């Protein structure tokens, strides 16, 4: 038995994960409790591979996206092994929670992140303030991390996001062309990849185009 684990007995949520600790095992479970679910091999590599795609088989470029496959679990014998698996699902989440709790998390805003872009992402800095607000509202709403860089405040146990991610930068970059060209929104195609913002049918693209100027 892992003595450290025995001292943490109970269940708690982290993002879309449920973590249950008993005296002799730790169970990491995905969303959607199902009596007959999939047992994933309890190694960081297997867990990382498992969460790489969503239920439709689409690559998940945003680790915090609320698109984890449902109905699976993995069982670990030690807290150290569990920690590695959590890190595979939500990289840096535990470090960010600890730093936030200690008041040492370094927070960087969207303006600064867009201003430092180079190469093909340099144009993202041209996005209007309304566009920045809309893009971050739409993307971050579907993420388990809480964008403290937007002054959102995480509840206990929630994962603070200290800095706009590369997916948001990519979304902002694409939104610059939408502000210039005003393409008409199309129907959402669920098979279009999550971050293929340039592709008609992408859910985040079409939602953005449908909601211009809506204060969020
Ligand atoms: S910027 Fe938003 S979408 Fe990206 S990781 Fe942070 S909270 Fe999630």
How would you characterize this protein structure?
The structure is a single chain. The chain folds into two domains: about 5-90, Gyrase A, domain 2 (2-Layer Sandwich); about 100-210, Alpha-Beta Plaits, CATH 3.30.70. The protein is built from eight helices and seven strands. It is globular. The chain has a five-stranded mixed sheet, with helices on one face. A hairpin with a 4-residue loop joins strand 2 (about 15-20) and strand 3. The protein is an alpha/beta fold and about 220 residues long. The mean pLDDT is about 95. Helix 2 (about 45-50) packs parallel to helix 3 and helix 6 crosses helix 7. Iron/sulfur cluster binds near residues 167 and 168. Iron/sulfur cluster (SF4) binds near residues 64 and 139.
Write the topology of this structure.
Elements: H1 3-6, E1 10-14, E2 17-21, E3 26-29, E4 38-39, H2 44-50, E5 72-76, H3 79-89, H4 93-102, H5 110-115, H6 129-141, E6 145-147, E7 159-161, H7 166-181, H8 203-210
The structure holds iron/sulfur cluster.
Largest sheet: 5 strands, mixed
Specify the structural class: alpha/beta
Proportion of strand residues: 5-15%
In sequence order, what are the helices and strands, one letter per element?
A: HEEEEHEHHHHEEHH
Number of strands: 7
Main β-sheet, spatial strand arrangement: 1-2-3-5-4
Name of the level-1 CATH class of the largest domain: Alpha Beta
Shape: globular
What is the CATH architecture annotation of the largest domain?
Answer: 2-Layer Sandwich
Mean pLDDT: 93
Which ranges are low-confidence, i.e. pLDDT below 50, for 5 or more consecutive residues? none
Helix content: 25-40%
Q: What is the gyration radius calculated from CA atoms?
A: 19 Å
Tell me which ligands are bound: iron/sulfur cluster
Total count of helical runs of at least 4 residues: 8
Distance between the termini: 49 Å
CATH topology of the largest domain: Alpha-Beta Plaits
Number of domains: 2
